[in-house]
Amino acid sequence: MKNRFVVGAIAALSLAGMASARPDIAIWTFETSVPTTAGPHAAEVGTGSAFANTGGVISNPVGNGSVESMSSTAWDLGDNYEFRTSSTGYQNISITWDQTSSNTGPRDFNLQISTNGGGSYSTIMGYMVLANAAPNTVWSSGGGRLPEYTFTASLGIAAANLADLRIRFTQSSTVSANGGTVAGTGTDRVDNVQISGDLIPTPGALALAGVAGLVGFRRRRS
What we know:
Radius of gyration: 22 Å
Largest sheet: 7 strands, antiparallel
Low-confidence stretches: 1-21
CATH topology: Jelly Rolls
CATH architecture: Sandwich
Shape: globular
Structural class: alpha+beta
């Protein structure tokens, strides 16, 4: 009976460790992939490429608690920032990012994903960004990361285990961050883009789960 308990405990600990692991698939901080063009810009962690699909001037102003970010002018309906990576081997995909606009930059965006290599995009949610201006606290490299500019979303079942996952932050209206109309010189910037997921259990891990359940059942019966 003691041996059965030890085996069950080891299996349970192994599964608990597997379940608690939530690795980063890709992260863009723009600290080394400093944006001065529309892209591609490589992820600092993991693999993937970032693009600014705006037709505007791309620059790298101060980030949210960091030195660099990705910024663009000349925003219009449908313009977007795009992030491409692979979610192969991962499920429960989520994304966290920081985003802000100048007073005359765009306010309204849609978070969209493509699961067919860019053939089509579906909208996960709509959201609004704050103006990086008074009375709001503005981004700086010397202070901490300001949470009011941070967004988090789950990408749903469709984003799991894809060789080519594409995510966009797409302008959805012509309303500016100060409530007026988006101007050609208005800017929007993003920083700290982090895509994460849970590892899909391997057949060996699933077999281990079965062994753990069987041992626990036998122990209760004994």
